[in-house]
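User: I'm curious whether this sequence folds into something compact or stays loose and floppy. Could you predict its structure so I can see for myself?
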Amino acid sequence: MKIEDKIKIVREFEERQGISVGSSHERDALAPLIKVYQRMRTLFEKAEGHLREMGGSLGLVDRTRLYELLTRGASIVEAIEGSRIRSEGKDGREEQIETLKAKQREIIELRRILRSKTEKIRSLEEELEYYRRKVRELEKEITKLMEELDKIRHQRKRELERDRLVSQLRERIRELEADVGRRDAMIDSLRAELRSLRRDVARSDLGPGWVPIKAVENLSRSTLEEAIVRGVLSEGDVVLVGDASTAGPRSVRLLKDAGVWAIVHSGSPPPPEVLSMLEEGGIFVTSTNSVEIRWKGAIPHVREEFLLRVAARRRPPKPVKEESEAGEGEDGGDILSIVWEYRRSLLDEEGATH
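Assistant: Here's the prediction. I'll summarize afterward.
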């Protein structure tokens, strides 16, 4: 028998009887029995119909014997003939009747037992269904608990990841603290070295005739603006520049506004067009190849003669006047006095920095 036929037969039987088959094994075992039962029931119904058509002419018939013969393969006529209760006198007939009644009582008892067992089976099936529902509920609860367990595992994983990250951050903090300690020690060492250099500078002496000047890294707009804001550049300054090639028109304007007198570059010179603008603005430009530079600590110095030369280029000497006239002018004083005043202001600035 095909599986589809077995499923169909058992499903129809379940619907008629109001029962449920638990497993595929039970279905496979029950399907052939139902098939045989359906075939035999049809045969039994035909035999009963044949008996009703015959009426009582054949006398009493032993139904149990009738069904037994039909089950063994006898035809309906053979089964009826073989199960007929034959009259063998009054005593024999009464005995057969009693026997038949006893069998009928036995059948009634068996039917009662069958009903009881059927009720028991139905009760067990209801109990089984109850436990099946409980199993389904437990399965749902287990599924829910598994989901909660997955959430807990995921949360635990995040916590472990967070702990690992915290551990890494703490290790990084320890490394940074150690680095800060090393840098603090380096700063202390540099400060000590700076104090030593300052003491050396304070003890050093360039001798007479040297004047301090200002120094910047380059002539870019940002560098000059920062120097002006910090007050590094002021009126009458001579500035030592590392790289003058970064100068532009804006740089020229800043230098003129600050009142710078001269530029001494140790590296690349300004571009030609910028050099022309500087010279037109009265700013003298030269290189360290033409000027002797000496250092006292971190401060560059030039000879007074260079300042005189710068002053001479910036303010040409005026015609000699009478002594009385020179004293009466608002711009009285000669170039040398201006240079000495400039030197004094620079020396005062140098002393203030130390």
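Summary: Strands lie at 210-212, 214-218, 238-243, 262-265, 284-287, 294-296, 299-303. The domain at 210-318+331-353 is CATH 3.40.50 (Rossmann fold).
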